[in-house]
Amino acid sequence: MVPLILALVLAGGPLAGCGGSASDASNSASQEMHFVYVNWVEGIAITHMLHEVLEDSLDMDVTMTRVNGGGVAFSSVASGSADIFVEAWLPTTHKDAWAEYNDRVHKLGITYQGTSVGLVVPAYMDIGNVSELSSYRDALDGTINGIESGAAINGQTRQILENNGITGFDVLPSSGPAMVSALQRAINNQEPIVITGWKPHWMWSRFDLKYIPGAKTNDTPVFGAPENIYTVVRNDFEADYPETVVRFLKAFEVNDPQLNRLMEGFQPDSDQEPLPFARQWIRDHRDVVHGWLEAARSDTAEVAPDSLATQAR
User: Fold this and answer.
1) How many domains would you assign to the chain?
2) N or C: which end of the chain has fewer CB within 10 A?
3) Mean pLDDT per 10-residue run, the chain (313 residues)?
4) What pTM did the predictor assign?
């Protein structure tokens, strides 16, 4: 079978003119872009989707590298070893990384608005406030399931415990998928479990979950108010890339229904291949994606009429 993007080129000719304007070309704007992402499902899904749009509709050559934690993602962009990271949670979650690197990186645009973060339990657990967590210490073996070592949410969880005088717990570093696997096992056996959780995440649509009051966004300064997820780039990013590409990356933003559908293909137990699933999402949301591309248009740089975003479903 002929690969889909190759078939588009064969059917409609090369995607000429999509990489930028004539002035972009004369300035030798780069057509190669390096994304970093962390093992968080929403960022993985968004990065793969952007890979497909950029390569198919804007004639870019995109590489993607997974790194271990948001701090590493920030440092990769700041050092120039990567160009872009689309999952900077600000102003609270990644405040330390932002404080360290904001002289070398900057916000390009908003990826998603209105996050929440906190300690999460199955709805069947009878706990009305984080101050009651001590009563579950033995049943939980003194463990709260966290994500990657060094992740901000692990440190925030330890701060929550300290602020509430809760002792005898360890925050177990693992990964997002490993944490959700532990959640799945506990729910299957109707056992208690506490994890570090956040929205957006697909687990909220699969499991009946709740935040622990007193240990979530809007309940404590530790987790702060709802945040936005930003795209951050190295400081010379705009000078290096076609204006069309920069405008597209500033314009794209996903909401809950769009992101929930996109994350379905990136769940640990999904039988979908990531890039083909991202291409199908683009077809299914062609009006959304075309709107982003329209925002990037100029008189001399137009979106290819045969790109994934403009095809019929």
Assistant:
1) 2
2) N
3) 35 34 54 95 96 96 95 97 97 95 97 97 97 96 93 94 96 91 96 96 94 97 96 97 96 96 89 93 96 79 46 40
4) 0.82
